[in-house]
Design a protein that fits this description.
This protein is mainly alpha-helical and 66 residues long. 48% of the residues lie in helices and 0% in strands. It starts with 17 loop residues before the first helix and ends with a helix.
Length: 66
């Protein structure tokens, strides 16, 4: 059993990675694929689930309807 990760519902508690989250969200605006790579326990899942997904979902709500 590994460490517990932050999930989308924990986004309000997830802090300290705002700059990285912003950089990755900006990259996803231009590219369709993004790999998050790092050592075990370094926070990849938390970054994706509590940082990147909420940032992406918030950005998609602000996009004009097609």
């Amino acid at each position: 059993m590994g460490l517990r990760y932050f999930d989308t519902g924990d986004a309000g508690l997830f802090y300290g990675r705002q700059a990285l989250t912003g950089q990755l969200a900006a990259r996803l605006a231009d590219e369709r694929f993004l790999a998050i790579v790092g050592a075990s326990g370094s926070g990849k899942s938390s970054l994706a689930r509590a940082g990147l997904v909420p940032a992406w979902m918030g950005a998609s709500r602000r996009l004009p309807a097609a």
